[in-house]
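2024-03-11 09:14:02 DEBUG pipeline.ingest accepted 1 chain
2024-03-11 09:14:02 DEBUG pipeline.ingest length=391
2024-03-11 09:14:03 DEBUG pipeline.predict start
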Amino acid sequence: MAEQGRDNQKQVKTKRNKRLFGPIPTIVFAFACCVLLWFFIFYESAYEKLTTIEAARAIPEAENAATLYNKLPLYDSDLLKYDFPDESIEDVTLARPWSGEDYPELAGWFEEREDIIDDLIRASKIKQCRFPITDFPKGKGLHSQRLEAMRTWTFFLVRSANNDIAEDRIDKALEKCFCLIRMGRHNRRQPFSLDFLIGIYIESMSLRRMRTCIVESDLTDENLRSIETATAQPIDEWTKDWDNLLTVEKLYVQMLPHTYPNPGWRYKLKEWWEKRKNQQAKIDELNESYTRLLADRRANFILIALRRYRNQTGRWPESLKEIKPSIAEDILIDPQNNGPFVYKLTDDGFTLYSKGRNNIDEGGSDKNGADDRAIWPLQIPQINNKNSTTE
C-alpha cells in the first residue's frame, strides 16, 4: 500500500510538472515568431537607415551651400593648377605673406581668378551645407574628389590672402580668412569623420593666417572685432551633427565587407571587436583634433587682447596677467591640458605657445618627442631661393 501511495504521489507530481512546464515551449515559440515577425516588418538595413538620415537632413537647394560648391572647378581643373618652378616657392607662398614684386607671374595668375574667389566667398556665406551621404563612394569617387577640391580651394585662398597681407589689402585678406573658417565649418557639418578632420584643418589654416594680421598689420579696432566675431565658437557646435556623425560612422562600419576568410563565429566576433576598437580610436582622434582647434581659437583671442594692449600702451605686456581684465577667463586656459598658455617677452616681441597634451613646458618645441605647439611667432619653412623674400 505504501509503495502504491508513493507511485500515486509521483504521478501527481509528474502531472503537476507537466502542467507547470507545458506552456514554456509554447511561450518560447510564440516569442520567436514575434521576433521574426518584427524582423521582417520593421527591420531596416544599414543603407535604409542612412536613407532615413539623408531625408531628415534634406534642405532646399537655394539654402544649401553644397549646391554652389558643386558648381565650382574641381581639384583637377587646369583653372586651379599653377606650375610652380620651384618647390620652395610653393611652400613659402603658402606659409607667409608674399608680394607681386617677388612673384609677379603668380600674382597675375591670381588676378585672373578673382571670379573663383568671389564664388567661394559667396558659397561659404550660406549658413547650411548638406552633401549627400547615401552615395558615399570608395576610392576616388565623388566624396574623395570633393575633399580634394576643398584642399585645393584652401591652399588657393591661403596663398591669395598671403599676397593681400603683404600688399596691405587687409580687408581682402581677412575676408578670405573668414571664408576659410566658414568652409571648415561646412565640412564639419557632414557626418563623416574625414570631413570633420578636414574641416578642422581648414579652419586652423585660417586662424594661422590671421595671426600675422593681428600681430604685424595695421588693424583697426573694427578689424579686430570682425576677427573675434568670425572666430567665436558656434552655439550649436557638437550637437545634432555630432550625433549624426557617430550614427553614420557606425552604419558604415556595419556595411564594411568581412575581411576574414573563415566565416566562423569566432572570426566574426573578432572582426566586430576590431571594428569597434577602430571606431573608438577614430572618435578619440576627433576629440583630440577638436580640442586643438579650440586651443587655436583661444590663442587668437589672446593675440587680439595683446594687440589691443600694445595699441593702448605702446608696448607688449610683461605677462598674460596684464590682459586678464580684458578677456574672458576661460580664454586663458589651454583646453588641451587645462593649464595656462606660455607667454614670454623677447628682444623683438614675444613668444606664445601651448604646452600641448602633456602639459610640460618644452620651450615651444615639437621636435624629438616634445609636443608644444607654437602660436607666435609662426613656424615657417626656411628656404634658399634668390627670388624669395628673406626671413
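2024-03-11 09:14:41 DEBUG pipeline.report Residues 75 and 98 are 24 Å apart (CA to CA).
2024-03-11 09:14:41 DEBUG pipeline.predict end
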